[in-house]
Amino acid sequence: MKTLILLLISSMAFGALSEIRYDFSSHKERAISTSKDKKKVLIFLSPSCPCSQKQFDYINSLAKKFDNVEFIGFSSNKHISKDSALKYFDQFKINFPIFIDKDLKYANKFSAFKTPHVFLIDENEEVMYQGAVTNKRSPELSTKFYLNDVLTALKENKKLPYTLSKTLGCYIAR
């Protein structure tokens, strides 16, 4: 497994981060963006949740499609080690970085309670949308594509069609 270095980063409103943010596309650690000019999609994921796993390819496609927003993943689970989480996520070729949030600092800050749980935040860290990625655990079976629809509206400078949806998936282990 790749050698990991603990980073202390950012004066952004996220606070001083001590969790590892690992970029699986480049296999390197990266500092969280301090850019205030991009909105961010925060996605809480879990190595122990099949619902998270079923969404990885779809979320990856959204991250590529909507380059006007920054995608950031959080692995928030008290019972899964950092090494286990990194090994798990590495096998899925995730194209956005993931923080290991073992102390649940960010899950608690945003009141994330299931995985996947998505938050679209603006430049001032105000939540614009929170909820599910789609209306089914598997995107192939979905009839509503909440995150895609919200990001499409955002890109087209239109009113967001959703600000809240029911989150599906596994509860975050606290």
Could you characterize the architecture of this molecule?
- The chain is of the alpha+beta class.
- It has a single domain (21-26, 38-171), classed as Glutaredoxin (3-Layer(aba) Sandwich).
- The protein has four helices and nine strands.
- It has helices at residues 50-65, 82-90, 105-110, 146-155, and strands spanning 21-23, 28-29, 39-45, 69-75, 98-100, 114-115, 117-121, 127-131, 170-171.
- The strands form two sheets. The chain has a seven-stranded mixed beta sheet. Strands 6-9 form a two-stranded antiparallel sheet.
- The model is unreliable at 1-20 (pLDDT under 50).
Brief summary of the model shown:
With 174 residues, this protein is α+β, with helices and mostly antiparallel strands. It is built from 4 helices and 9 strands, in the order E-E-E-H-E-H-E-H-E-E-E-H-E.
SSE layout and pairing:
Layout: E1 21-23, E2 28-29, E3 39-45, H1 50-65, E4 69-75, H2 82-90, E5 98-100, H3 105-110, E6 114-115, E7 117-121, E8 127-131, H4 146-155, E9 170-171
Parallel strand pairs: 3-4, 4-5
Antiparallel strand pairs: 1-2, 1-5, 3-7, 6-9, 7-8
InterPro entries: PRX-like1, Redoxin, Thioredoxin-like_sf, Thioredoxin_domain
Domain Thioredoxin: 5-159
Signal peptide: 1-15
